[in-house]
Structures are given as structure tokens and as C-alpha cells.
Design brief:
mainly alpha, four-stranded parallel beta sheet, two-stranded antiparallel ribbon, 5% strand, disordered C terminus
């Protein structure tokens, strides 16, 4: 059987390595090719949307991918996502697109509705658990306070969450008191220069002010004089004085784009999303605790939350996993114990029933290297007994760990046959 072949249509050369690594992890042996046209975005933006020329070019690229033998085309740029719907009708292979503008994706940042669960079921008010930069309790609190509805507002929140002295006792209070909305606050270092120039501050002075404030050096007298001369509001001047560090807008945009793309998969490809999330947190995943129904997982979470703060902090990664597992269970996705013959060494799989199958290395006492030993040994056929497993070069301590994990219930300890069974 030929290896699967995926062709990705791009409008930039970014993130190629990460994309290839992800696909090869999920689909061993996959062949990945790229068709990139970096001129498309400029043309789309200049004309307010895809022109017929853009549609024709992308259709040509899609047909080229089909001729090259691709089994799947992935349209990786949401700006031309609507074009994928057009050229999908012109080729005979599946076309997949990742949209950052899907209404459900944006709603995920303020509601659990896109996941089909309620806040009461998962104990969280938003659907951003496990979304990079937006999944921590600190940022989730920012989301519930500001209720963003646009990507621009998410960029502002990203800037605020990465700065120092920018949100707490600063922008948060400005918004709470109704002094200014989120879009009026200083959220990234670029906002300082842009807002001051809009007020009438000379460009060089606005730039110097931005550089001084973003580095935590505060305002120099000539900066305050320039702001006073154009009637800069007192609240804005006070806000600048409180800042110790500011995040660049370009970095915030990159983080938000990543978050939106992952949010798309969390909504529309939930099992694949959870498998990837668990794989990235493999070292903290303990199958002896983290496999069970929603009641079991909720009880495990409550038990972790009841620990003394110092111990709870040490188990922060495990607690984050329990949060995600409770959410996943509420969405109707089941996780089962590792399987001696079906589980991978370090990858989470989806079985024929749509359940998440953890790797053998999630069992306490089984490392990834030892799990790989099990995979190598099982290639020689089913295990007759636990004694035979040891003879097949599986360490005795690992066999004991498998037994403790409940994986050896159908495998006798000894290869000897009792006369009572004859």
C-alpha cells in the first residue's frame, strides 16, 4: 500500500517544519509536499477579497496537486479559505481548510457552547482549556472580563497577558471603571506610539516614549510635556507610568493565529486534538489516575485541588490534564486503559470505537524505552504467560507494572499447566 500523500497550499513559507513534524507523528510514513504562492495575500488584500485571477491560480495549484498523486489537499491560509470551496469542486480528492474566521472558533474564547457542554459540566466558563496562550486561569479570567469578539481584541488580550504591570492594577481597572474599553487601552508596545501620534505627539517623541515605557524606564520630563501639550488624558499617562514591560504586537498576532488554528481543530476534530494535547503532556499523564468516566475524573480533579498549595503547584501539569479530561468526557469522548497489544509506546491513538487509547508509557513504572521493548516483543506473537514475557526481554519490573495497571488479567503468571485443567 502506497504511503499517504498530502499537499498543502500555502501563502507563506512559515511553519513548514512544525506542520511536517505534526503530520508525520499522526500519520507515520506520510509524504508531505507544499505549493506556496507568497503573492496571493497581497493581491487579495489589495482587492478586498479573492479575485478571479486568484481563484484560477489556486484551482491550477489544486489540479497540480491531484496530478502529482496527492490523496488530500490542505488549504492552510484562512484568508483564501473561501477559494477552497471553489476549487474543491474541480478536483477528485478531498480538500480540507483551516479557518480562523469561523464564528464557532471565535465564540470558543468566551463560551463553552462550541464544545457542546456547559460551564457547570466542566467547571470553566470558556472553551479555551488547552489552547496555547489562552488556556491558563489567568488569561481565562481576562477573557471573561473583556468578552472579545474579534481577532484584534484577542491580540490585545495576548499583549496584556504577556506584559508586566499592564493588566493588573492598570488596564483591568480602566476597563472595570468604564474609563476606556479594551480597544482604547495600551495593550502592546506598538499601541503607545500609535495612540500618541493620533493625539498629535511628534513621531520621534512618540517612538522614544514607546521605547522607554516598554523597557520599564517610565516617562522622562520631555515626554510628559509633549503629551500634556496635546491634551493626553490623565488616565493614559498614569497607565504608561505603571508599565514595566510590554509585549510586541507582532508576537501577539503570531500567538493568536496559532491559538485560532488550534481552536478550530479542538472544535471540529476533537479526538485528534485531544490525542495531540496528551502527547505533548505525556510525562504528566498517569493512566492509573486519568482513565475513567466523568465522575471518576471530576473526583480526581477535586482531590488534586484539595492538596496543600505547595503540593498542588508541583502537580500543576497533572491538574491541567484533569481539566482537559473532564471537558473531553463531557463532550462524550471516552478514554480507556492502555492495551497490551494495541497501544503505541508514546502516542495516543483513536480506536475503532472512537475512544482514546493511551500509550503503554502512561502506566506508572513504564518508560517510553520500556514500552518500545514491549512493542518489539509482541511482534513475535501473543504472550503465553507473564514468565514468558520476561523471557522475551521485558524487564520483570515492567511486567509487574503492567499487572498493577490491569493489563495482564487474561495472561497467567506461569507457563506451566495445572493437572486440574487437563
Amino acid at each position: 500500500m502506497a504511503a499517504p500523500h498530502v499537499c498543502i497550499l500555502q501563502t507563506s513559507f512559515a511553519k513548514r517544519e512544525d506542520t511536517v513534524a505534526f503530520l508525520k507523528e499522526k500519520v507515520p510514513g506520510v509524504r508531505v509536499e507544499f505549493i506556496t504562492d507568497s503573492t496571493l495575500l497581497a493581491e487579495v488584500r489589495a482587492n478586498g477579497g479573492p479575485t478571479q485571477a486568484v481563484i484560477d491560480r489556486m484551482t491550477l495549484y489544486a489540479k497540480a496537486a491531484e496530478i502529482s498523486g496527492a490523496d488530500l489537499i490542505v488549504n492552510s491560509c484562512s484568508t483564501v479559505g473561501e477559494v477552497a470551496d471553489v476549487y474543491a469542486k474541480e478536483v477528485g480528492i478531498p480538500v480540507m481548510k483551516v479557518s480562523m474566521s469561523d464564528p464557532q472558533v471565535m465564540k470558543l474564547f468566551v463560551s463553552t457552547e462550541p464544545l457542546g457542554v456547559t460551564p457547570e459540566e466542566i467547571g470553566v466558563a470558556t472553551g479555551t482549556l488547552g489552547i496555547p496562550e489562552f488556556g491558563t486561569s489567568f488569561v481565562r479570567g481576562m477573557l471573561t472580563e473583556t468578552l472579545p469578539s474579534t481577532m484584534e481584541e484577542l491580540v490585545r488580550i495576548s499583549g496584556l497577558s504577556h506584559g508586566t504591570g499592564v493588566w493588573l492594577d492598570n488596564a483591568q481597572e480602566i476597563i472595570r471603571k468604564g474609563i476606556a474599553p479594551l480597544r482604547g487601552c495600551v495593550c502592546t508596545r506598538d499601541d503607545i506610539m500609535n495612540q500618541l501620534m493620533e493625539l498629535g505627539v511628534e513621531a520621534k517623541t512618540a517612538f522614544d516614549t514607546m521605547e522607554s515605557v516598554r523597557k520599564g524606564k517610565g516617562l522622562k520630563p520631555f515626554m510628559e510635556e509633549a503629551m500634556a501639550a496635546v491634551g493626553t488624558p490623565d488616565w493614559l499617562v498614569d497607565s504608561l507610568k505603571r508599565i514595566n514591560y510590554m509585549f510586541p504586537k507582532s508576537h501577539a498576532v503570531a500567538y493568536v493565529m496559532m491559538g485560532l488554528r488550534i481552536a478550530y481543530f479542538k472544535i471540529f476534530y476533537p479526538r485528534e486534538y485531544y490525542c495531540c494535547y496528551f502527547k505533548r503532556n505525556l510525562e504528566a499523564f498517569d493512566a492509573s489516575v486519568m482513565v475513567g468516566n466523568q465522575d471518576h475524573l471530576s473526583a480526581a480533579k477535586a482531590e488534586s485541588l484539595a492538596l496543600p498549595k505547595e503540593e498542588r503547584d508541583r502537580k500543576a501539569d497533572a491538574l491541567s490534564l484533569l481539566d482537559i479530561l473532564v471537558e473531553m468526557s463531557a463532550r462524550g469522548i471516552q478514554i480507556v486503559l492502555p492495551d497490551l497489544y494495541a497501544s503505541a509506546a508514546d502516542r495516543f491513538l483513536i480506536d475503532e470505537q472512537g475512544r482514546i487509547l493511551p500509550p503503554l508509557s502512561t502506566l506508572p513504572g513504564v518508560s517510553v524505552a520500556q514500552a518500545q521493548q514491549i512493542l518489539a516483543a509482541r511482534q513475535d506473537g501473543p504472550f503465553i504467560s507473564q514468565e514468558e514475557m520476561v523471557r522475551r526481554k521485558i524487564p520483570k519490573s515492567v511486567v509487574e507494572a503492567l499487572r498493577a495497571g490491569g493489563l495482564l488479567a487474561q495472561i497467567p503468571q506461569s507457563s506451566q499447566i495445572s493437572l486440574f485443567y487437563l
